[in-house]
Write a structure and sequence with these properties.
By secondary structure, the chain is α+β, with helices and mostly antiparallel strands. It folds into two domains: 4-27 and 134-176, no CATH class; 50-131, Beta-Lactamase, CATH 3.30.450. The chain is 58% helix and 17% strand. The protein contains four helices and four strands, in the order H-H-E-E-E-E-H-H. It has helices at residues 4-57, 60-72, 132-160, 163-168; strands at residues 76-83, 88-91, 110-117, 120-129. Strands 2-1-4-3 form a four-stranded antiparallel beta sheet. The protein is rod-shaped, with a radius of gyration of 27 Å. The chain starts with a helix and ends in a 9-residue tail after the last helix. 14% of the residues are buried.
Length: 177
């Protein structure tokens, strides 16, 4: 029979482990978000510089190649440039060029950056980054933390609670404990 003190210690250990896992999961989630923002900012800055250069040179091919390259970056769902009125000038799906830009159903991961020549805004870079890969990685890390965090509690509770001894005596499984 387990004493009340032992039960309290086991419960406290479990609560501390759960709080630790939760804190680590929150920290990991924030870290994934910051990395995603940093990567998107880098893509945005690089693509914007190339698109502005293409516009100055009146090089539609360079603009289209830049959009195609941006759309091939890992996690990018689509990329386009629209003029001030919302007409698509360049798109990774060429059939969309010349049409009015349609806002996607979900705006999660949507990035929009005004594009200017001097002080005059002439268009907008628009691209979307899928968060599915980041969410999957975060869930995998969370599961790993739960398993690794739960293992010490289990290893502590197993011998302390007498479960190991009961099974060693051949009590017939969980029903005999």
């Amino acid at each position: 029979m387990m004493s009340k003190r032992l039960i309290r210690e086991m419960m406290l250990a479990g609560i501390l482990i759960i709080c630790g896992i939760w804190a680590c999961a929150d920290l990991l989630h924030k870290s994934f978000q910051e990395e995603s923002l940093l990567g998107a900012n880098r893509l945005q800055e690089t693509a914007t510089a190339l698109i502005e250069k293409a516009h100055r040179l009146k090089d539609d091919l360079l603009m289209q190649e830049t959009i195609q390259a941006l759309a091939r970056a890992p996690g990018v769902a689509f990329a386009c440039v629209a003029d001030k009125e919302g007409k698509v000038l360049s798109h990774n799906r060429p059939a969309e060029m010349g049409k009015a830009f349609q806002m996607p159903y979900s705006t999660e991961g949507l990035w929009m950056r005004p594009i200017s020549e001097g002080q005059e805004r002439w268009g907008t870079l628009i691209f979307s980054i899928s968060m599915a890969a980041a969410h999957k990685s975060w869930l995998e890390q969370l599961l790993l933390q739960i398993v690794l965090g739960g293992a010490p509690v289990g290893l502590y509770c197993w011998p302390v609670a007498g479960l190991g001894k009961a099974i060693a005596k051949g009590s017939g499984g969980a029903g005999g404990i």
